[in-house]
Amino acid sequence: MGTAPSDLTKAFVVLPAVQAEAATRSDEARLEEAVGLTAAIDLDVVEAMIAPVLRPRPATFLGAGKVEQIRDMLDARDPRPGLVIVDHSLTPVQHRNLEKEWNAKVLDRTALILEIFGARARTAEGRLQVELAHLSYQRSRLVRSWTHLERQRGGFGFLGGPGESQIEADRRALANKIDRLKEKLDQVRRTRSLQRAKRKRAPYPVVALVGYTNAGKSTLFNYLTKSEVVAKDLLFATLDPTMRAVVLRSGQRIILSDTVGFISDLPTQLVTAFRATLEEVLEADLIVHVRDAAHADSEPQRLDVIGVLKEIGIDEHDERPVIEALNKIDLLDEEERSALQMSVRLSKERTICTIEEPARIAISAVTGEGLGELQDLIDRLVTAERETFVIETPAAN
Predict the structure, then answer these.
(1) 228 to each of 119, 244, 372, how far by Cα in Å?
(2) CA 109 centroid distance within chain
(3) Can you name the residues that pair with 209 across neighbouring β-strands?
(4) I want to staple 332 with a disulfide (CB 3.0 to 4.6 A). Which of 7, 17, 80, 337 is the partner?
(5) Model pLDDT for residues 55-78, shown as the tens digit of each residue
(6) How far apart are CA 171 and CA 174, in angstroms?
(7) Cα–Cα distances in Å, from 370 out to 257, 344, 358, 373, 380?
(8) Strands lying side by side in the sheet with 359-362
(9) How far apart are CA 11 and CA 102, in angstroms?
(10) In a 3-state reduction of DSSP, which class is residue 359?
């Protein structure tokens, strides 16, 4: 074992590339995202590697040779990284064994995203949702970690061994906390419903911005609303929903909503916990899907966003119109930009404005390019069902 002191601010990132798992993006892109997630909570990534996995091992997930190699790499560094990020879900047994093998704290993908959400949540609702997700994650690991004790119980009643009694007490404590948090979140949802009912009485359509994390939603939101929501080149810079009134160029007023960014393999605990936040999207009159057109994995990211939207009830049969804003065109070279503009022109000829076949428009939320056209398209779609009357009155004598 290395003698160098451990430093919990320095992280070693490992992406297990499981051969049996179908991946829509390259291992390199997935590793880059894992490094970005780690950096999002101000950790210093000192090493990042792809670890091929032919067949996951029940004890450590990774093969014995790879586990030993990573331990040697940790030992070789001074200060020794005190944290290893494994960008995959781990069972409690695998988690515990890897921490023992590496003499370091281990976070799997779910735990890492929970940490980021915990660091980013600002509103009372956001903090409640993060806490609920954390507790749900802990409870699932507690239950699975101690199933071997249940089989040893013997007899009936509540007179099991002392270890089991403690586990049961921990389960009850977690269950009680979860129930209390769910009650508080139900109150938040009721408040949101009342707010939405008030907005429905107002004659202003609601437009929701959705998209993969770091696609530029908050930058676009700031440009259109002339506000200063946190907008950084950082994964999950926005967690709490923000709404502002916007007057379009025609004078039409809308309510614009900025939402939490989506990500591939979003932990199920967070899909559930953030449902109240995503309900804003369900109530929108129009959805603007902001895509990072300059990202190498723009298409897989699009599919991930559509997958999450379908989970909350928005699919190809949904009747509300959808715009796909292809953002960051300022980062494309001339050839890429021409190809993108061509695809946008083709989409206008056959678009039906659904989540699968949206109205596409190329924009840059940084330079403002295409944003006038985007506003005009939003204006046209939110007023599409209105009738226009022309009233001619004779000039006064």
Answers:
(1) 20, 11, 20
(2) 12
(3) 258, 288
(4) 337
(5) 999 999 999 999 999 999 999 999
(6) 5
(7) 20, 12, 17, 5, 15
(8) 242-247, 253-258, 206-211, 286-292, 322-327, 359-362
(9) 13
(10) strand
Residue 336 main-chain phi, psi, to 5 deg: -65, -40
HSE, CB side, 13 Å, CA atoms: give it for residue 376: 6
Dist CA 223 CA 365 (whole Å):
7
How many angstroms separate the Cα of 286 from the Cα of each of 66, 79, 238, 301, 322?
49, 52, 20, 20, 6
Q: Cα–Cα distance between 356 and 305 in angstroms, integer?
A: 11
- Write out the DSSP string of 195-214: HHHHHHHTT--EEEEEEBTT
Q: Which two tokens stand for residue 311?
A: 């989970």
- Predicted local distance difference test score (pLDDT) of residue 236: 58
Per the structure block, which two tokens stand in for 361? 């428009």
Output the CA torsion 16→137→139→88 (10° steps).
0
**Count of other CB atoms within 10 angstroms of residue 100:** 11
pLDDT at 153: 36
- With tokens 């590496």, the residue in question is 102
| R_g (Cα) of the chain, nearest Å | 25
Which residues lie across from 114 on neighbouring strands? none
Question: Could you tell me the pTM of the whole model?
Answer: 0.78
**Long-range contacts of residues 331-335, Cβ cutoff 8 Å, at least 24 apart:** 331/294, 332/293, 332/294
d(CA 259, CA 201): 22
Rounded to an integer, what is the distance from CA 262 to the centroid of its chain?
Answer: 3
**In this structure, what token pair is assigned to residue 301?**
């990211």
Spatial distance between the Cα atoms of 362 and 344, rounded to a whole number of angstroms? 7
Q: Round to the nearest angstrom and report the end-to-end CA distance of the chain.
A: 100
Percent of the chain with pLDDT over 90: 40
**What's phi and psi for 18, nearest 5 deg?**
-85, 120
How many angstroms separate the CA atoms of 384 and 245, rounded? Answer: 20
What is the pLDDT at residue 252? 87
CA–CA separation, 61 and 202 (whole Å): 54
- What amino acid is encoded at 143 in this protein? V
**Residues 137-165: b if buried by 16+ CB within 10 A, e if exposed:** bbbebeeeebeeeeeeeeeeeeebeeebe
Q: Is 396 exposed, middle or buried (0-12, 13-18, 19+ CB in 10 A)?
A: exposed
Look at residues 73, 188, 92 and name the one whose alpha carbon lies nearest to residue 141.
92
